[in-house]
Amino acid sequence: MGKASQAEHKLLDEHSMQASKLTLGQKICYLVNGALIAALPAYAFHSIQHIKLSDNLISHGIAVILTIATLFFAYHNVASVQKRKIYKVRLSAVEESMRSGSKTRSPDFDKQAVKKANEIAAFESVALSLFYNNALFVAIQIVFAFYLFKNWEPQNAYVGSTVVASGIVALLATGK
């Protein structure tokens, strides 16, 4: 791609500023995935340790809400960081495919390429963020729940492992 022109840097900066803004679809996706992943440890403890959810509804509710909030934060941070990296890679591929598709170059070719690359980068960054954070949360939660906290009471192990795992995921999401 070579050196980027002043106009390309301006377009890149405009779209990277939009990377931190969440769309309604992203918010819904993050909340639904966060809720599903937060409910997974409750199901595991209910099935394996035979914990009755109704007996400890308040502590389970607090753990689930904290987990959803921290996972939402982690999803957004990882997606924002990855979007810019993915955008840089995808822009050249989008420009190449647009050049091969048409013989003439339209006046708004750069804007169309930037818009399409931005859409692709947004979709891929959300998918990568969900995969990375969910896999990390489940792995950390299993290690804490069934290895490090195995001698704790099942209720305390559930709350502790779930909150600690989501906190570690959120902490790791703040780095670049």
UniProtKB/TrEMBL annotation:
<keyword id="KW-0812">Transmembrane</keyword>
<dbReference type="GO" id="GO:0006614">
    <property type="term" value="P:SRP-dependent cotranslational protein targeting to membrane"/>
</dbReference>
<dbReference type="InterPro" id="IPR009779">
    <property type="entry name" value="SSR3"/>
</dbReference>
<comment type="similarity">
    <text>Belongs to the TRAP-gamma family.</text>
</comment>
<protein>
    <recommendedName>
        <fullName>Translocon-associated protein subunit gamma</fullName>
    </recommendedName>
</protein>
<dbReference type="Pfam" id="PF07074">
    <property type="entry name" value="TRAP-gamma"/>
</dbReference>
<keyword id="KW-1133">Transmembrane helix</keyword>
<keyword id="KW-0256">Endoplasmic reticulum</keyword>
<feature type="transmembrane region" description="Helical">
    <location>
        <begin position="57"/>
        <end position="78"/>
    </location>
</feature>
<feature type="transmembrane region" description="Helical">
    <location>
        <begin position="130"/>
        <end position="149"/>
    </location>
</feature>
<feature type="transmembrane region" description="Helical">
    <location>
        <begin position="155"/>
        <end position="174"/>
    </location>
</feature>
<keyword id="KW-0472">Membrane</keyword>
<dbReference type="GO" id="GO:0005789">
    <property type="term" value="C:endoplasmic reticulum membrane"/>
</dbReference>
<feature type="transmembrane region" description="Helical">
    <location>
        <begin position="28"/>
        <end position="45"/>
    </location>
</feature>
<comment type="function">
    <text>TRAP proteins are part of a complex whose function is to bind calcium to the ER membrane and thereby regulate the retention of ER resident proteins.</text>
</comment>
